[in-house]
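Protocol step 4 of 6: record predicted structures for both targets in the notebook before any analysis. Target 1:
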Amino acid sequence: MSRLFAVGLGLVALAVMTALERTGTLSGVRADPCAVLVTYLAFRFDLVGGAISALLLGFLLDVTAASPTGLHQLTLMVLFVLLRVVANAVQLDPGPKLWPVAAAAAFFHRLMVTSLVGLFSSGTQPLGSVWDAVWATLLTNAILAIPLLWVTDRVARRVHPEPEHLFLIK
């Protein structure tokens, strides 16, 4: 249960991102702290602990984004499983050094959500909004990932001193 600290960090990060979006500071750019946290969970924790945290982060994102129920839960779980496969294939230490992976994961999460919403709604151009601010979104998520991964790593090392992730390739 102590792995659920990422849910609290995700809630705080979502509150900050929502406040910045409401003030117009991030116009047209979608920062995704939950995808960054799921990236850290995939590289640091075991499958069950990371999956439960990813599901709870997806639920929080569904509630705060007013999206269809389960949309972000599904996409964050798919993202977690894909990142878990990458974590097993590539040995990277979790922490701020994961920022390029986290920025790419946040973009891929946005692409999955936009594709699923466009698939089940009629009369929309689903992928047009993804490509409108692609470079600004990647840059924003890369900048967001560094301090968020650093804070998450510090908290995780206090809760669990040793990573639970068992690398398949040493």
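Target 2:
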Amino acid sequence: MQKIFNLFPFLVFVLLFSACSSSTSGDGDNGDDPNDPNADTSQSLFFVLDEIIFPTGGEVFGFDLDGEGASVASCNKEDLAGNVDNQLGSVLQGLPVVDDDTLTLADTLNDSVVDFIADGTLLAAGEISGIDDFQNDSYVRLDIYALRVPEGKTAPDVDANGVLLADQTFDIDPSSLNAGAPVMRFDNLAIIDGQIDSGPAESAESAVILLRAPLGAHLYELRLTWARIAFDLTETRITNGMIGGVADVSTFGSQLECSGAVQVASIDDTLGLVADFSNSGDATNKNCQGVSMGVSFKGIPVVKGGVGLPADVGACAAN
């Protein structure tokens, strides 16, 4: 069953998604359809990602994106424990930053993410609608947005540790909308035992996440195919969030080079060594030009404002 209406090719990490998966029955749905404007007895949860973590080596988070383990479709690269496809930590460890051979992107990226979230540059959000039961609900919808700090503010409200505070207002980045509607939407999802999971992608292009990440001084957009997202939710917190997908080696390499954040000579060799996916999904195709990725996240409830100004995204965005 088609679960996502890909209204316009976009991105995020910001995170933005398009996907296919099959719906699963829950127990608490009262029949409200989020597409029905008169279905006003259910709840919505609008949340911002207050924590995003990229793997820096050794972490095992993500998904078995191909369902094959160390197969030909995985380019005979060993998956992580549990058949998790996530070579991003190896990529980051193999990319020395500019002007310092002692540091790699693995040493600096997550610190940059924390700073970019705290200053309002990197803001991703989800809105779950049609919630009748936060534990089990057979029909909910997930819309994804990039956010902006409201006009008149220079940065989000944070605590003494620089962590985003709940219940503040954020505006919608206009690039998240097409004719006033969300660009990316997961429809026909279910909450099962307090978790939402979009499930495995049916093909490379049936599920796409456009992920924003800081490289150097700017945000850049990574286009992830074979994408999947899952997280636990309550009325007050999003936890155990995972995003997984596959980035095209050539495109990712061009973005890294354009960013000026890493030493150019290291890019091709590093990506070539860890490429573990064939975007064709053909098990007989050994020309593997994709690298699997996974990131983790948490979120907090915030207030959905109006439409703000577009984010400043680097010129190396994936198209």
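Step 5 preliminary note on target 2. Residues 99 and 263 are 8 Å apart (CA to CA). DSSP finds four helices and 16 strands in the chain.
Proceed to step 6 after PI sign-off.
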